[in-house]
User: What shape does this take?
Amino acid sequence: MIDENEFVKLIQENDRIIHKVVGLYADTKEDKKDLYQETLLQLWKSVKNFRREASFTTFMYKVALNVALSFNKKSKRIQTTTLDNANELSASISDKEDYEILYLTIKNLIETDRMIITLHLDGYKNIEIAEITGMTTNNVNVKIHRIKEKITHEFKKIDHGYQ
Amino acid sequence: MDINKQWQKLEQANFNQTIKKEEIMKAIQLESTSTIAELKKRLGQKINWVIFFILLFIGVAAFNYTNTLIIALMGVSTLTYLVGYIMLKQEHRKLVSTELIDGTVLDGLKSNLKAIKSALAKERIFGLLGFPVMMIVGFSFNSFLKGSTISDVLESQYNLTTIIFFVALVLFLGFAAEKMNKMAFGEHITKLETQIRELERIS
Assistant: This one.
């Protein structure tokens, strides 16, 4: 059984996961704060289900993503599912670094795609992603391929918009 | 562009803060704001009302133990509310266990959706059973105390009009509650259903 001190230590060692999920799933300051607190609370409540033979980061991801996908946003997000209009975006992204554009592109993906690509970029193998999400490994393979294609396509579109 | 390299840069720039111990301690002492927690709280309040009415029915029966009609009416009411109590309590327990996240993300979303739908359905069923019982008791109690029989109560024009009014009121309240639930949970249910579909879709 994990006690309070051990829990705090484990969270502090892996707090990147929470920041990442919160950053990618909440938009306003208020929503970020709520999602952040709710994630910590649910991690604490669910830690009794954690089996030590598994990795704590995987457990953390499962809980954080579960909370994020079930989270009720207070603010209604302005839906921009695709970066269709490169000119419209150019004003806001012209002075941005590539990694910032990547961040915006991932944030514009649908929530389940956002989850899969985040896990993939964090180094999880497809079989592990399948274990975390509940999808089949084949499905994960195809999805990752498509999401990467989509991201590359959006980047090219933005690049093309400048030329 | 190398996506992996950019991701590492992004991690360094955006996700590199440290959570303080005080923040963690504060967060774990807060009340949950999730839909499940909201429903759990709502069901908890309903359960308290059901207990209150059961005690009230028993109390009334005890004070009128010589009146067979009152005993029968209170007995039926108590039984109906007991069934409601068991139903809501089971649902409450299910919501408590749903709060603990175990299994995959897809499992979590599915159990979340199932729990919300089931809690709302049980609330609806109890509303349809519980409200009429409560209204009939409230409405006919006085007449029974004065010695009237069930057929006396039903024969009166005034009583019939009142019953029709109550039926209409129950239907309206049911409709309003349905609308309110749709407003409060409809969007959330749709969101969960979409995510489950997305995760289950065969590419």
Notes: Chain B has a mean pLDDT of 84.
